[in-house]
Amino acid sequence: MRFHTVCISFTQESDGERIGQMVAAALGFRFVDEEIIFKAADLAGVEPERVAAAEQKPPLLERVLGILSSVEPLVRSSPGPGRSSAASSDELRDMIRAAIHEVGKLGNVVIVAHGASMALAGTPGVLRVLVTAPEEVRIDRHAERRMLTRVDASESVTSSDDARRDYFQSFYKIEDESPTRYDLVLNTELLSAELATRLIVAAALG
Asked: What global pTM score does this model have?
């Protein structure tokens, strides 16, 4: 079976985002991450930063604001024409899920993060992938890459993992991110990003 949509979930410092970009390039698919935020904002009629805040993902919010400021002055201190600040967090989360479905329907796309694997579970033509690595490995990577003490790196990775669990609970009422929720689970402790990419591409091509 050939898959038209690849959803890649990943834990911090598992290299999942980079692998997602490489998979998209290898398949000739569109790579989607922040675009989900803009699509959801359009559906909800609110500013993109409010949608990002509803996801409770500060790093993503910072990137969205950076993109907005470098493209055109869309971010305002008050809602612009057609935009509302009244949407609740639940409504914005609904829009994020709706945006994932809308992007997934287009096909030929790699969607990274946003719990897309959960949102599109059971959808034909969707390959759901989890990229992860043992906690100790991810802590070591984080300390080295960010030049942190191991204690600080450990706190950061633990916080990220906790936020990930909270995200799945908040958005999808999932208490346990079981490996069986995915079609393919890759451990990058020993697998290089290149090899992980080839495995995902092979699975996507059937």
From this structure: 0.76
